[in-house]
Sequence to fold (174 residues):
Amino acid sequence: MKDAFKTKAREAATEFNTETAMRLIKPTMLRQPALARVFNQLPLRTRGSATVRIGTFSDSVYIGLMLSNLDSFKDSRLVNVLSKFDDWRAQTSDWTGSDAPSRDYQFTHKFTWEHDERAIAYKKLIKENAAIPQTFSIIVSISAWVSEDSATCRIVTKEREETIKKVDRFIVCD
Fold:
């Protein structure tokens, strides 16, 4: 029984060391040339308000950007930013909860992770035969808000009646 504990303790220590090394190399994503190129594609005026963060549970860097008081979703400021991500995987969501129409755009692209092979954390991962990520993703999230008094874009409310038949399943025990 004691030998089993020693084995489990050794495994836990190795796993902890690997996780620690991964946490140490993760911030190197922020020093990747690809990230700097993507960030520098953003219009100069919007870079200061952009947020940059590392994904907690993924090998991703998030760049968040908010554009407000647009004339419409065809506003040149928004179109200019969107054109930079033509070849990226895209997803959009419309939000109608407030008086101002808004749309979220999310663009994702994978890049090769250029590791610093001299880093201690990298060497530790190599020594422990750990799976070292070879790619990382950059996710650009853009929230676009059209001004409430826009002549070309507004939220329209339509009512409709819907009948739903719902079946409940539950367990009854005596």
